[in-house]
Specification:
single chain, 344 residues, alpha+beta, Jelly Rolls, 2 domains, 6-stranded antiparallel sheet
């Protein structure tokens, strides 16, 4: 292992402009003033750009270097040999803090195969939400149609921009802090006002926005320029009853020192666990992203200097740091890419 390689780094907030309101919860967590009404997303350790942009969305290291460029220059030290052999210099992970200051539109994301065929992307966009905080009287999310929807019905809803029909056809799910919701590619969904999440996702900005009116400029933007005749082929129109929903919604449990947030099938896309301990947890060597939600966490890397993270800090951890002992009265979310031996 390269002991002279990159070290864990604390990252500044990275809030590229979005089309919807929010950001107050991010500001509270990070202990900074709310700087923009339309700053609802903090892209953490991002090597991904916003769709159609050259640089917007990319994270910078404390010295100003783009994280993407630092990894390209030394992928082995950042990502490790097994990851690099499978994914090259792509971390295969994007982590966000997302604060819905208004309800998000009904949308879905393409699968890997659809993205490869039609969008010149190696990845689609499967994602998962870890609920951090809820505000308001009715915090909820929406996921999957309650019943099968035929192609013509969906086409009519989209052509007429019938928001009430699209939203009304989805399963409405009340959520609370600690809940995790896994959103496979193709699943239509929306996030309700007042829901603050940490989001793990495949590293793209590909969204098919079925309900674009009132959110985006036009239908072309909503379909990523493909037109909805093609874009709608990536939508899962099947019904999601209680049994199917139970496989993707994991309710909060009493905190253990290290609680895994996703099951084995879901970990084909990314991995995450919640750390809540004063006794210490050993984090295995590997690229990861850490979000501290409460308290103070001391990181003691196998290679490199000790560092202390506080509430609201986000950090990127390179493979070269080796195994890390995490100690402190703190709660945090630890996010990793998929295991290199587990193809999605």
């Amino acid at each position: 292992m390269n002991v002279n390689g990159p070290a864990p780094a604390v990252l500044a907030a990275n809030q590229p402009e979005q089309f919807y309101r929010g950001g107050a919860a991010i500001a509270r967590l990070r202990g900074m003033p709310a700087s923009a009404e339309y700053g609802p997303e903090d892209w953490v350790a991002s090597t991904t750009t916003r769709f159609g942009h050259e640089e917007s969305g990319l994270s910078r290291l404390p010295d100003g270097t783009l994280l993407r460029e630092a990894i390209k220059l030394d992928p082995y030290s950042w990502l490790g040999p097994a990851h690099t052999a499978r994914f090259g210099s792509d971390p295969a992970l994007l982590v966000k803090l997302l604060d819905a200051g208004q309800r998000l539109p009904v949308h879905c994301h393409p699968s890997d195969g659809f993205a490869q065929r039609h969008l010149d992307s190696s990845f689609g966009k499967t994602e998962a939400w870890v609920v951090l905080e809820t505000n308001g009287e009715d915090p909820c999310v929406y996921a999957g149609f309650r019943e099968d929807v035929d192609e013509e019905t969906l086409r009519t809803w989209v052509e007429n921009q019938d928001s009430a029909a699209m939203l009304g056809a989805l399963n409405r799910l009340e959520v609370a802090p600690g809940d995790t919701v896994f959103i496979p590619a193709g699943l239509p969904h929306a996030i309700g006002e007042g829901v603050f999440i940490a989001e793990l996702q495949q590293p793209t900005d590909l969204s098919i926005t079925l309900e674009w009116k009132g959110f985006l400029a036009d239908a072309e933007t909503g379909s990523l320029g493909m037109g909805f005749d093609l874009a709608m082929f990536c939508v899962d129109r099947t019904g999601w009853e209680e049994r199917r929903l139970g496989a993707i919604v994991h309710r909060a449990e009493a905190d253990a020192p290290c609680r895994w947030l996703l099951d084995g099938e879901q970990e084909r896309y990314f991995r995450a666990h919640r750390l809540s301990t004063a006794r210490g947890v050993l984090l295995r060597a590997g690229y990861s992203v850490l979000i501290v939600l409460e308290g103070e966490l001391r990181l003691i890397p196998e290679n490199g200097e000790e560092m202390v993270l506080s509430k609201g800090n986000t950090a990127v951890i390179p493979y070269a740091a080796g195994a890390i002992e995490a100690i402190g009265e703190a709660t945090s979310i630890h996010c990793r890419p998929p295991a290199p031996g587990e193809p999605a």
